[in-house]
Structures are given as C-alpha cells and as structure tokens.
Amino acid sequence: MRTTKQEEEELRGWLAGRLPGELFTRLVEVTADREEVTVIGAIPEPALDADVSAGERAAALEGRVAEFRERTRDTRIDVARQTERRYGKKVSWGAQCGEVRVLFTHVAAPVMTRLRQPQRQVLDTLIAAGVARSRSEALSWCVRLVEQHSDEWLSELRDSLAHVEDVRAQGPDRQSEA
Fold first, then answer.
1. From CA 17, how far away is CA 4, in angstroms rounded?
2. Residue among 88, 100, 93 nearest 62 (CA)
3. At what angle do helices 5-18 and 73-87 cross, to 10 degrees?
4. Dist. CA 117–CA 127, nearest whole Å
5. Is the CB of residue 6 less than 8 Å from the CB of residue 175?
6. For residue 124, what are the contacts with CB-CB under 8 A and spacing of at least 6?
7. What is the pTM of this model?
8. CA 57 to chain centre
9. Which of 27, 35, 69, 168 has its CA 20 to 30 A from that of 97?
10. If you ran DSSP here, which 8-state letter would residue 50 be given?
11. 93 and 76 in contact (C-beta within 8 Å)?
12. Measured on CA atoms in the order 78, 79, 81, 82, is the torsion positive or negative?
C-alpha cells in the first residue's frame, strides 16, 4: 500500500508548518511509504573562496552537513517524535548542501519475496562474486542498480500511479462530502 498523493501533500504541509524556520533554508523533499517518512532539507553552503579546489569544496560541504547534523539533533528528534505520533511512521532525516546530499538515518524494512530458481541463481552469483554477503543484501543491491538506471522510467510510472489515484478519488466509490 502506497501513501496517497493527498496524504503526502498533507504530511509535507504539516512538516513545513512544524519545522522551525531556521532548521532548513527550504524543504527539498518529503517522501513517505508504509513504514517511514524521509525529510530532506537544504542547508546553507559554507563561504568559500571562488578558487578553492573541488576536493576542498566537497570536504567543506560534507563538513557543513556533519555540523548541521550534530547541532540540530535535539530539534530533529522532537519533530520526529511528534510526526511519529501523528502519522504512525518513523521519521528519517537528510540534508542537502550544494550538490552534496546525505541521509542521516533511515529505516531498513524487511521485504518478503518469492523467487524462482533462475532469480535465486542471480542472487547466489552476486554472493559468490563477493558483491553481497547474503541473498537479502544481493536483492537490495539489485534494487539499487535498477533504481540508478531506471530513474526516468520509474518517475514516469510514479506519475502514472498518481494520476490513477486522482481518477480513482473522483469515482463513484468516493466518500460523499457532508
């Protein structure tokens, strides 16, 4: 079961209103599924000279994210507890500083699946090659690979699902508004 577009919009709105104004410069992304809400916000970049090397810039951005994570921990925990009570889902956090995006914590939810022998052999090959230590880790690796190489297709599929949800909400089974 997916979170509906309307539920995600309400959640994003609630968080936008609940988050202290000084926490993020803007809310970059709020995503939700059955188990988890992930909140990613933009934070200010450190002031750097224009002629700094790429390595120095990358280190400065990573350092800013680490500083933000430590400094805002108590605030984020407070907001997460309130969000968890309200929506019944764990809250995970991330920050984006320039082109660097870091997820601090996130839920690793177990997923049960049934695979036929040829599919299990793919997983076992990844284990034998040292890519993964277990079938679970190998399956996770496969999902990440598909995610990396199918962004456009998955985005189009998600947009189509959102349209189906909108049409379904307009159907005869919708609850009458009193």
1. 20
2. 100
3. 140
4. 15
5. no
6. 135, 138
7. 0.70
8. 25
9. 35
10. T
11. yes
12. positive
